[in-house]
Automatic annotation (TrEMBL):
<dbReference type="GO" id="GO:0008173">
    <property type="term" value="F:RNA methyltransferase activity"/>
</dbReference>
<keyword id="KW-0489">Methyltransferase</keyword>
<protein>
    <submittedName>
        <fullName>tRNA G18 (Ribose-2'-O)-methylase SpoU</fullName>
    </submittedName>
</protein>
<dbReference type="InterPro" id="IPR001537">
    <property type="entry name" value="SpoU_MeTrfase"/>
</dbReference>
<keyword id="KW-0808">Transferase</keyword>
<feature type="domain" description="tRNA/rRNA methyltransferase SpoU type">
    <location>
        <begin position="135"/>
        <end position="281"/>
    </location>
</feature>
<dbReference type="GO" id="GO:0003723">
    <property type="term" value="F:RNA binding"/>
</dbReference>
<dbReference type="InterPro" id="IPR051259">
    <property type="entry name" value="rRNA_Methyltransferase"/>
</dbReference>
<dbReference type="GO" id="GO:0032259">
    <property type="term" value="P:methylation"/>
</dbReference>
<dbReference type="Pfam" id="PF00588">
    <property type="entry name" value="SpoU_methylase"/>
</dbReference>
<dbReference type="InterPro" id="IPR029064">
    <property type="entry name" value="Ribosomal_eL30-like_sf"/>
</dbReference>
<dbReference type="InterPro" id="IPR029026">
    <property type="entry name" value="tRNA_m1G_MTases_N"/>
</dbReference>
<dbReference type="GO" id="GO:0006396">
    <property type="term" value="P:RNA processing"/>
</dbReference>
<dbReference type="InterPro" id="IPR029028">
    <property type="entry name" value="Alpha/beta_knot_MTases"/>
</dbReference>
Length: 286
């Protein structure tokens, strides 16, 4: 027998999704096309949302004060999410069997829960820098997994803020959030209006030493005593380069120093998130 059409649950706030046709509800628009990052950027901006994925990440977003617009929950996860639902009785809840949710989201919803949340207003760079001693600059980092891993390390190693170039990935893209394990909600971040080179004078003016993490001729080894002034700098901004090309030449022309993690002959580079983890520890504020 065919499943009944979408229906409201006993508490009036729940909509049970049973068939593909039920997915026409406009409130479900933020949940479509989850796997296409470029499309997502447009969908998220259009609807002013970001998506938190997995029960843990949703909880962290809520704990950080983000406002849920709706929840989408696989039937199996209902019980383990009951406390969240009880704490937000007015937020619409969409539930359904796995196959229906998969046809909506474009991927298997194996982590149980998704929440569409209001996207916070962009923060000004000056706001994010206020009081920060250690700031990471993601120059054109386009990979959401790398960005999420970088954010996780930055928070775990006590860095205070993140700046991104206009081309860099979105820290609030579903996958970046999940790889960061929701730590992105603890890290103040802002987007620069232009290239890093243009931001360097203002950073210097604010008392930051500006260094690039990059394999260059002039780079100083991360473990070198020569790096002591950078290690003990009161304020430090560290630029990470794009996955393929690395830190832009124009940026390197403006930084105070380049820092390299020495590698054996024949090895070109580390993954940017791995390199960041090593350097963030060594250059942390003390
Ligand atoms: C994968 S690398 C870019 C490609 C690299 N320029 C190359 O030619 O192989 C991405 C970023 O990771 C960081 N990185 C990777 N390995 C590094 C190392 N050994 N020392 C310093 N930075 C490194 C830099 O910030 C670099 O821009």
């Amino acid at each position: 027998m065919a499943e009944p059409a979408a229906s409201a649950g006993p508490d009036g706030r729940e909509v049970r999704l049973a068939r593909a046709e039920d997915l026409a509800d406009p409130r479900l628009a933020p949940y479509t096309t989850l796997t296409d990052a470029a499309l997502r950027r447009r969908v998220d901006a259009e609807h002013g949302v970001f998506l938190a994925e997995s029960s843990q990440v949703v909880r962290r977003a809520l704990a950080a004060g983000h406002t849920p617009r709706s929840f989408l929950l696989g039937d199996r996860y209902r019980e383990s999410f009951a406390d969240v639902l009880a704490a937000h009785p007015d937020v619409p809840l969409f539930t359904g069997p796995d196959e229906v949710l998969t046809s909506l989201t474009g991927f298997h919803l194996h982590r149980g829960a998704l929440a569409a949340m209001d996207r916070p207003a962009p923060r000004p760079v000056t706001d994010v820098l206020a009081g920060a001693r250690r700031v990471l600059i993601a120059e054109d980092l386009v990979d959401h997994t790398n960005l999420g891993a970088v954010v996780r390390s930055a928070v775990a190693l006590g860095w205070d803020a993140l700046l991104l170039t206009p081309q860099a990935a979105d820290p609030l893209y579903r996958r970046a959030i999940r790889v960061s394990m929701g730590t992105v909600f603890r890290l103040p971040w802002a987007r620069l209006e232009g290239p890093v080179a243009e931001a360097v004078p203002a950073l210097r003016e604010a008392g930051f030493a500006v260094a690039a993490l990059e394999v260059t001729e002039r780079a100083v080894g991360l473990d070198s005593p020569e790096l002591e002034p950078l290690r003990s700098a009161d304020r430090l901004a560290l630029v990470l380069g794009q996955e393929g090309p690395g830190v832009r030449t124009e940026t390197l022309e403006h930084t105070d120093a380049d820092v390299v993690i020495s590698m054996p002959d024949g090895v070109d580079s580390l993954n940017v998130a791995a390199a960041a983890a090593v350097a963030l520890w060594e250059l942390r504020a003390r």
